[in-house]
Structure formats: C-alpha cells, structure tokens
Amino acid sequence: MRFKPKPLKSDVKFECKFCLDCCRGRFIYLTLSDIANIMAHGHDPYDFVLMAAEGGKIRFVLAYREWDLGCVFHDPETGKCKIHDYNPLICKIYPFMVSHKPLGIEGEEPFEYKGEKLWLYYDESCPGIGEGDEIVTREEIAELGLKFQREFENTDLGGLNRLLSGEYDGT
After folding, report:
1. 160 DSSP assignment
2. What pLDDT, in 10s, does the model give residues 110-152?
3. Separation of alpha carbons 74 and 6, rounded Å
4. Helices (H) and strands (E) in the chain — how many of each?
5. Coil/strand/helix, residue 5
6. Is the Cβ–Cβ distance between 119 and 112 less than 8 Å?
7. How far apart, in Å, are the Cα atoms of 117 and each of 19, 43, 87, 123, 143?
C-alpha cells in the first residue's frame, strides 16, 4: 500500500497493529549504521541488503521476499518484525514522514525544529494512528527524520565496502 500523507499538526497516539502494510511492497531504506547494527546481531548483509539505483546514486534497501514483497525480517504469520529491537531508522519513523518542503497537501504547515523548517506527515492508511497509550511527539519525529537524513546522505558504496572489510568506524 502506498503512503497516504496527512499533515501531522499535533502529537498523536500510536500503537502498531501489525497490519503488515509497512513491511511489504515498499523500499525500506538502510543507512550504514543500520547495516552495521543488524550485522552486529549476527545477520549476514548478503542475506538482507539489496542495492537500488535512485537519482544517480546507489541506495541500500532491505531485501524482500519475492512471493509477497515482504521484508525478509518480517514474520508473515505473526506480523511482527524479527529485528524490532534493532530495526532500521526508517522503520522507527514509520508511519510518520519528515520533509524539508511541503507536499502540497491541504492543511500542511511548517514545523520549526532546531532551526530547520520541516513538514511532518503521517500515513492516514495506518490503523495504529490514534490508538494505544503511547504518545509520539512531533519533536521525536523531527529528530528521527533529521538523523535519518544525515545518515542517509553519508551512506554510499565506499562506506559499505569499508563496513564489509571491517574498516567502518561509524562515520
């Protein structure tokens, strides 16, 4: 299912309902830190990293099962993530989205955070929005989004080669 963005204008309750939609049929982008963290838990990157070309750059994404396009770490029987305790940063952000420019959606407004103007959204198709006891703040989402952007910009093939050869120091 495609992300259906709706402006995030306030803090919101969120509880994952394990509906499976976020783990299937979409690229789950990886940073070098994500790959290193998953490797540190005993997983072979040759089993979970795929490369994709995007905008003239090589991007790394989680591998997926061909039969349902589900993430290789997603358990289709339980709907749960096998690496939830150390899942990729982009997974920690979903069902939210951070943008540096408006998407042209009715009701959107900028959110100022650490001197940056950001636009925050949530996926209106996610059944966990507005559910549960945990409140997710806009500041939390903005912080995760900025962290992802910094790490993603510094993720490249040279970094992956350093990581695989044991020379990666996290920078």
Report:
1. H
2. 999 999 999 999 999 999 999 999 999 999 999 999 999 999 9
3. 26
4. 5, 9
5. strand
6. no
7. 32, 37, 27, 20, 12
